[in-house]
Amino acid sequence: MGIDNAETKVGEDAAKSLQRSAEADERTTEASMGSDLAKGADRFEERSKSSDGKSAGAKQEETDNQG
Question: Which residue range is the domain that position 29 belongs to?
């Protein structure tokens, strides 16, 4: 739920707190890695890769080409 979508003051406060916590966690992670985390579409692609380094789309193409 986003801050703008919160129906109550309690929900809005919880969403703001969650956002602040996530931002702090991201800063901590970036500091320990020594570089910024990917943002936007790049971040989605980075997170969607499996342990073998291939994205879901690449695996689907392999499967389609084998059949």
Answer: 3-66
